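Give me structure tokens for this 493-residue protein.
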Amino acid sequence: MEENQDSYRQIFKATSLFGGVQVFNIIISIIRSKFVAILIGPTGMGITGLLTTSIGFVSALTNFGLGTSAVKNVAAAAATGDKSRVSTVVTVLRRLVWITGLLGMVLTAVLSPWLSDLTFGSKEYTLAFIWISVTLLFQQLSSGQIVVLQGLRRLQYLAKANMAGAVLGLVISIPVYYVWRLDGIVPVIIISSLTAMLLSWFYARKVGVRTIKINTKTITAEGKEMLKMGFVLSISGLIPLGTSYIIRIYISNNGGVDQVGLYTAGFAIINTYVGMIFSAMSMDYYPRLAGVSHDNKKTAELINQQSEIAILILAPILAVFIVFIQYVIILLYSTKFVPVNGMIQWAAMGMYFKAVSWAIAFILLAKGASRLFFWNELIANIYILGFNIIGYKLAGFNGLGISFVAGYFVYLIQVFFLAHYKYDFLFQFDFFKLFGIQLTLGIACFTIIRFLQTPWSYFAGGATIVFSTWLSVKELDKRLGLKAIWINFRSRF
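Here you go.
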């Protein structure tokens, strides 16, 4: 029991730490966006978005997914307790990020006239692409250092690097934009990526993993698995980008650009303010899962624990979104975006299924099943795209929300049976009980807000949110010993 409690505490601690970092970064991003909008206007923001999106696409093709795939290798090496083994893996990684980073930089510089013409319809931005090509090297070197911190689970250093990067990005960009306006776009992109690289390097040095001398044979032997899996992950990462692009084009052709804007804003709320929980969890969850991936029993146990914590944290948040989404939209945007209320409420229901399927899907990465991961994601994105098109055609924005629920319900079934068939994964009774109760409360909130008139809907919905929150706190206390943590915290002061 004590061992399980320690595991639950580690999951919750990592989620709390990086959840706080995500909230901090969002606040900084909002402040930065306000200033940038004033200083360089919509035109400047458009240019910045097009430049960074184009660079991001090239990066996805050339970085070989090392920022994700290599975490497994570093975590597995750390699990052995052999410092020499860790040094070898990290040294190989550092060589590979240099090679792939230079590849991305050179490719961008060579293709700069074509990228400018494709992105902006002229070769006017060729020089800009040549200048910012160096950011692909900076980003890849930074990614290598972050992999070391994540794989070795030095979460405090990783959190500090993220927060310091957000603050420096704000401090640097505002003065540059103030002085040079549109001419400051390229310098800000370069300086921001350089700053992120230096910060990640600074904190990675604190870990104390030394770089050792290795020959080409060792680089090939150790790097083969990283690159093989990473390349598949890199290609897999392009699939949801393509799916997102196609559905936006479909909405634009059938409903207009305004409809695309509403759709984008609606899912930005869900993916940013709820999705940050997934980002926070993955920082610790993935390397921990990779560390026990050789043992199916331990793997299943960790997935169950992660799924329970995810539901306990997310359920009250999702209930709030379902009941009070109209006020959330008005606060973040304006009354013009109220038409996507229903879509977000449906999407919030879909998040219950996404949270669990997300926890299971990591088993494919942890096991190194890159080919299986690719086909799993490709098949899922095909039917999710189909659901989206059918949903929008039949019921507009509400249809898109419903398709989100249907897509992730099917995806949960898919990854569960895949994990069960390949790795003997099963859910434990405790998870079924928690998931069933919290999903029922979510459905209750959805039903109340849909069929009960205001203000009674808010009273009843609010009461359901309180009950969901109470239940989550109670269950978290069972798993974490919240009272003991609080008493220990108070004793320090």
